[in-house]
Design brief:
109 residues, alpha+beta, 2,3-Dihydroxybiphenyl 1,2-Dioxygenase, domain 1, 2 helices, 8 strands, 39% strand
Length: 109
């Protein structure tokens, strides 16, 4: 089974500053932007997703989710129940691990 990290999503309260940082420091480029402020989602070609929020508790981790590219999404979804994973509400290709980590499955098929 082939699997690789498709992208990693982070939370930010200042989308413009975060984009500027990744552009200036790492030379990353914007791939896609969806939504309206203050709830925009932005993807960079290099695998970073930024999820804009109006407020964020700085004592919490800014990690939002891990997106894994897989060959067969249905096969993975059939295996996760044995580990206590639950489907994420309203998202057919997302699930939450028992500790709350969100995982998104990306599949070309």
């Amino acid at each position: 089974m082939g699997v690789y990290v498709d992208h990693v999503g982070f939370v930010t309260t200042d989308l413009e500053a975060s984009v500027k940082f990744f552009e200036d420091v790492f030379g990353m480029t914007v791939k896609e932007v969806k939504g309206e402020a203050p709830k925009r989602k932005l993807w960079m070609n290099e695998g970073i997703q930024l999820n804009e929020v109006a407020e964020y508790d700085q004592t919490k981790n800014m990690f939002h989710h891990l997106a894994l590219h897989v060959d067969n999404k249905e096969e993975i979804l059939s295996k996760i129940g044995a580990y206590g994973c639950q489907p994420a509400e309203g998202k057919a290709h997302w699930f939450a691990m028992p500790d709350g980590m969100l995982i998104e499955l990306i599949c070309d098929k």
